[in-house]
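Cross-posted from the bioinformatics board.
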Amino acid sequence: MRVGFHAPDTVEELAYLVAEAADTRTPLEVMGRGTKREIGRPMQHGAVLSTENLVGVPLYEPSELALVALAGTPLAQIEQLLAENDQALPFEPVDLGPVLGFGPGQATIGGVIAANLSGSRRIHSGSARDHVLGVQAVNGRGETFRSGGRVLKNVTGYDLGRGIAGSWGTLAVMTEIALKVLPAQREVRTVLCFGLADQTGVEALCLALCTPFEVSGTVHMHAGLAEHFSDQEIANSGASVTAIRVENFPASARYRSSRLKQMLQAYAPALELDTMRSRTFWDEVRALRMFQKTSRPLWRISTLPSTAPKLIRSIARKIEIRVAYDWSGGLIWLETPPISDAGAVEIRRTLAEFGGHATLIRAETSARAGIDVFQPLDPPLMALTASLKRAFDPVGILNPGRMYPGI
Amino acid sequence: MSQIALPSPDHAILQRRNDLLKQLKKLVPGATLITDKEGRRTFETDALTAYRCLPLAVVLPQSTEEVSAILRFCHQNHIKVVPRGAGTSLSGGALPLEDAIVLCLTRMNKVLSIDLTDRVARVEAGITNTGITEAVATDRFFYAPDPSSQIACTIGGNVATNSGGAHCLKYGVTTNNVLGVRMVLMNGEVVDIGGASLDAPGYDFLALIVGSEGQFGIVTEVTVRLLKAPEGARPMLLGFGSNETAGACVAAIIAAGIVPVALEFMDRPAIHVCEHFVAAGYPLDVEALLIVEVQGSEDEIDTFLDKIGEIAQDFTPLTVRRSQSAEESAKIWKGRKNAFGAIGQLSDYYCMDGVIPLSKLPKALDEIGWICRRYRFDVANIFHAGDGNLHPLILYNANDPLQLERVELCGAEILKLCVELGGCLTGEHGVGIEKRDLMRVQFSEVDLGQQMRIKAAFDPDWLLNPGKVFPLEGQRTQ
């Protein structure tokens, strides 16, 4: 097959190219618009296969809470269409573009699902993969298959759509994705505290999630990160920021934020952001604005909220780090100095002690070549991983080696 | 008798039965092994009672180690295994095979740990769905998916079928509420998939395992998300003069940006049977009834119900009634949750589980009515309207073999209709044995081939719950 860049206009053409690559054993770099191609182990590939020309929304039924998009459709286009109908993607996908040197909103929906990108709302509404209703995809044999559908409930056959989510293009090339969407929230309120230590901040976030107020955002950031926000009151605080978001219709959102404010008084005086300031703040969290200015290594760590502050304290004893907690502490964004291994040895050693897993989101190619970008798996899980890869991509041509050697 | 064939048994296994069971007893002395005919009879069917088969034996282990030993033994001896929880499957998912051992997990029913800071619980697979919520209810937490059989059905069975329930419009189904499982593979190997954190490294095996109908491995432990209970909840009854207006009202509520926690639909026959059985206070002079439930503080509930009441006015409702008390709310739900049982008092019924896009609701109900009339059956419709999950209950006489055959054909036509309208064969009950041969209506050979290759990645010899989910001849070619 021809070396170079292929961006087919149709699913048939895409399937043909994959089949050809399988025949000729040509490894393909699979991507949408390539905003996340620097994430993963450096790969050797014979050609690039992009879904960027598969663009469009063949079905959108607001009253059925369902949207079907071709994989290459830009996320920004989908979100605009939803906004016109007072709806939104409930999982609020984090936008990795800006921390990787791209403009905001450039990712494709296929890329978002392939990386299972979920934002702050994950704690309330679920992850990206939770909202996948069905997919059409091309496997490593060049066969086009469907799984799921476009209705909200479906247990007909195995759930391959959600199974492919988060596989970084290594199992199949998604060509069409059906998603569950939800009404957008009209009123948003954010309750903020400044100056809390990690332990206390995370404790406050967890407490907020143990209320019945449907808290939909919980972040805590180190002092040095506040200055990156456009809200002057936050930027000038010079302190750590602990933020809790509630939503609903206006009277309800006000009621909820007042109850949370009362609760937080025990920790520190609380500030309240109205809808407009809240939207700006959470949009900036979503774009990881606090990590956009540098090109230092950036890790994404998943752990338990009750463990997170201890884990971070332990890493901080060895490396100078800047940290933002999301998901009430269950998700940690961690920036290290530009050291050769991006802090991998220390971070993974500490994770082994406390529990959790880490993915290197931003690093120089040389660093990515030498360390495990994705969390290494236990041998039984690694064996299953290899079996699953073979079940989708028997000759190993789809993003081979991007996640794990030989996968 | 009926249309659906069971795979032919392995005669070598049947011949070695006594010897194999003796070895198994020795291998896991702590597990309960049921070999006598009367004992096995208890396990010969599930909630799809038209099908029955006595298994080789039934084993009830008490630990993951015992499950591992049993599976390793079965793997070495090429014995098929049918996993079972409480046996409430409506699709024959736990139907035994003559040459298979039924591995029943109901003795593994402990809560292993509860962590309210991280809001997760780890439980054994045989605990009931309600058992989890009961364990955390005093702290006002709950486990969200609530299938109608929740008092009896096990979390392991919920994982196998990706169970839903009346409140999943808001809270999602099992796959959205489970974070990890401990699973024993057919070769006896124990793997931990996911855990207590909100995502797991590597491939999303959990997404594949949930809904795999016991064909990938035996889940022995489950880690679930716990949610804080809302301040309050209240249902409202909306009665309409036709199915069409009720369906249009559902669409209008959702289009207005309101997603109630539950949005249930009953047609006239269903309303009358339930009211007679439970005296839930349902109006009897309407063609269709919606139960709409919202949650929040008293003020939030009032605001939502006001808004829903306003929307309903556009559809000339015959009844608009809010529950006035906790007792009234409980009665309204009691009627809905006992609907299947109530209809069961009246007649045998065949319960369908198709899903359609909401906008096709009036057309679907109309066509279902025509199909049932053509087969000369009465039908009662009860369903989760918010997500388009239909449960037509076709009334028939199970003791009449001709009727059984006819009711299956009638049901198959209804499910084909659901697929034609853009929906699917099953929303929450699973494929099992019941809808196995209809899979080609929804999927191409390539689609099914990809699914079967995944089955083989977990269980290369096809020993786990065989004969289900896929058309039999397709399974043979794999």
